[in-house]
């Protein structure tokens, strides 16, 4: 395990002002910390067991998640479930959430196209992620992609340099660095896609040691 140089905004929270996840979710549903709530259908909070060993953190809800009000229910979520199973990670003992809780998009005709959250939006939403982690006290946090990694460990830690490694921020749970599964869905070449999927599964196998037998 490697020492993380510092931690990001989600780990700067000192005390969550909530009695539990249900209370925290109720607070989050009226969040106006940034402007993303104005266009999103609803806030998409994290989901999973209170006793989760592992917390999986993505970027933000997609179109389907925004409509359903649940995280990782679209194509990337289904792919994540498959890869977790291949890696030997018990999905039922994982909590899934996002660094940003509202869907950011650009309208193109009738479609809503994903738009990456900016630094200010990530920082403002990090309070909710930090509160989730403080309540859950997981054994491991998995950063799925650059936005999640920024929220957890700050802007200086990069996915390309740290992918597959488990970093230990001081006084916080260790963080496994990997890509977001949506990246795999954008690869058009079949051979390249298979190689990248295998590498993603390999990254996720590093999480198995953090699940209690």
TrEMBL record:
<keyword id="KW-0378">Hydrolase</keyword>
<keyword id="KW-0227">DNA damage</keyword>
<dbReference type="Pfam" id="PF03167">
    <property type="entry name" value="UDG"/>
</dbReference>
<keyword id="KW-0479">Metal-binding</keyword>
<dbReference type="InterPro" id="IPR005273">
    <property type="entry name" value="Ura-DNA_glyco_family4"/>
</dbReference>
<keyword id="KW-0614">Plasmid</keyword>
<dbReference type="InterPro" id="IPR051536">
    <property type="entry name" value="UDG_Type-4/5"/>
</dbReference>
<keyword id="KW-0234">DNA repair</keyword>
<keyword id="KW-0408">Iron</keyword>
<dbReference type="InterPro" id="IPR036895">
    <property type="entry name" value="Uracil-DNA_glycosylase-like_sf"/>
</dbReference>
<comment type="similarity">
    <text>Belongs to the uracil-DNA glycosylase (UDG) superfamily. Type 4 (UDGa) family.</text>
</comment>
<keyword id="KW-0411">Iron-sulfur</keyword>
<keyword id="KW-0004">4Fe-4S</keyword>
<protein>
    <recommendedName>
        <fullName>Type-4 uracil-DNA glycosylase</fullName>
    </recommendedName>
</protein>
<dbReference type="InterPro" id="IPR005122">
    <property type="entry name" value="Uracil-DNA_glycosylase-like"/>
</dbReference>
<feature type="domain" description="Uracil-DNA glycosylase-like">
    <location>
        <begin position="45"/>
        <end position="205"/>
    </location>
</feature>
């Amino acid at each position: 395990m490697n020492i993380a140089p510092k931690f990001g905004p989600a780990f700067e929270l000192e005390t969550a002002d909530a009695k539990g996840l249900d209370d925290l979710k109720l607070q989050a549903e009226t969040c106006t910390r940034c402007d993303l709530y104005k266009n999103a259908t609803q806030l998409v909070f994290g989901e999973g067991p209170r006793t989760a060993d592992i917390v999986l953190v993505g970027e933000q809800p997609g179109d389907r998640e925004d409509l359903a009000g649940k995280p990782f229910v679209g194509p990337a979520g289904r792919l994540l479930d498959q890869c977790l199973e291949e890696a030997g990670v018990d999905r039922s003992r994982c909590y899934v959430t996002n660094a940003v809780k509202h869907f950011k998009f650009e309208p193109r005709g009738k479609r809503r196209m994903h738009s990456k959250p900016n630094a200010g939006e990530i920082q403002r939403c990090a309070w909710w992620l930090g509160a989730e982690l403080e309540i859950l006290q997981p054994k491991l946090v998995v950063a799925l992609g650059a936005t999640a990694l920024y929220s957890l460990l700050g802007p200086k830690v990069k996915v390309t340099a740290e992918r597959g490694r488990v970093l230990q921020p001081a006084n916080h749970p260790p963080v496994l660095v990997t890509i977001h599964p949506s990246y795999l869905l954008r690869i058009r070449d079949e051979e390249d896609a298979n190689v990248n999927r295998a590498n993603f599964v390999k990254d996720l196998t590093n999480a198995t040691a953090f699940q209690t037998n």
